[in-house]
Amino acid sequence: MRIDRQVNGVRPVVYSIRQDQWISYYVYSSSSEAEKGLQEFENIPAAFVKHSRYKVANVLLFYIGGDVETENRIQAIMDEWP
Questions:
Q1: Which of 8, 15, 55, 69 could form a disulfide with 37 if both were Cys (CB 3.0 to 4.6 A apart)?
Q2: Of all helices (H) and strands (E), which one includes residue 23?
């Protein structure tokens, strides 16, 4: 399953990493719009599989796959983002 739903007026870019691993990211016009998107996402009924979520500046990123090594790599990249 992947996250491809429009949130706060933005549709995500979705990539398949492997067969059961997906990254979806949303780019908003501002950090406050990304925060609104995150709040809207949290109000969606919990029909999603387990995922990790990240917010940096005006970007929301969601990862589905459960691979700890990949999650750690994503977290490291997000932590280095200005």
A1: 8
A2: strand 21-27
CATH code assigned at 41: 3.30.310
d(CA 27, CA 81): 14
Give the structural domain span for 57.
13-80
3-state secondary structure of 52: strand
Q: Number of structural domains, the chain?
A: 1
**Gap between the Cα atoms of 81 and 59, Å rounded:** 10
**SS3 assignment, position 79:** helix
The 8-class DSSP code of residue 20 comes to T
CB 64 within 8 A of CB 3: yes
**pTM score of the predicted model:** 0.83
